[in-house]
Amino acid sequence: xxxxxxxxxxxxxxxxxxxxxxxxxxxxxxxxxxxxxxxxxxxxxxxxxxxxxxxxxxxxxxxxxxxxxxxxxxxxxxxxxxxxxxxxxxxxxxxxxxxxxxxxxxxxxxxxxxxxxxxxxxxxxxxxxxxxxxxxxxxxxxxxxxxxxxxxxxxxxxxxxxxxxxxxxxxxxxxxxxxxxxxxxxxxxxxxxxxxxxxxxxxxxxxxxxxxxxxxxxxxxxxxxxxxxxxxxxxxxxxxxxxxxxxxxxxxxxxxxxxxxxxxxxxxxxxxxxxxxxxxxxxxxxxxx
Length: 289
What we know:
There is one protein chain. By secondary structure, the protein is an alpha+beta fold. It has helices at residues 10-15, 59-62, 119-124, 178-191, 225-241; strands spanning 52-53, 72-73, 83-96, 106-108, 115-116, 152-162, 167-174, 198-207, 210-219. It has a domain at 50-103 and 153-289. Strands 3, 4, 5, 6, 7, 8 and 9 form a seven-stranded antiparallel β-sheet that branches. The chain has a two-stranded antiparallel sheet with strand order 1-2.
């Protein structure tokens, strides 16, 4: 018996429709693919990778064995011992983990409003990090005169152009490591962002709880004017990513790019900034805090 392709099927019985293929006498060809040879990132969806420091429990160290403690890690790149970094911008951040927990309970991307527990409840009341009890210092110890630090840790995220990788990256500095990051903020006051470069390295410390790596930096005057120009271009793209209606110009020229790198300061090997000895990080890839 010949097969009737238009006969109702079991699927038709369930849906009440017909699975017969619709046909038309008019053929409409699909448009040809249009290729773009002018490389332009989709600025409204700009994703900024994290520049991290390898710690003993980092997967790259403990599992994959592709990096060593103190190496700088960036996705899609090999680990490296140092990074040339041109700062572009900074933002204050906060991170709260309950005592004894490795999980973040609440965090703030701007240091003003928290998201999580207790941040969500505070925002519902029209309050922010300044009113949160987790951001307050504890009572002073009568013996030492020092107060207990806030359970919610304060930090800085620094956005910058990595000359080493040719990428826009961000790096997080938490708690005591903020003293290292503060050097960049102070330098930006006098020179302005995008107008100076630092060389990031790490220093290793240890105590009875383990070994860890912390960042250190000093001024680097070996970068070229082209490197600073590229930092300005990335800065413009980042600004564009904050505005969904922004249309990047055909040519984005840097503003006030220095003709030569900033002159070196009269110091020993530049300004070396290292953090105080601190307790090893509670979880992988996080600076000590």
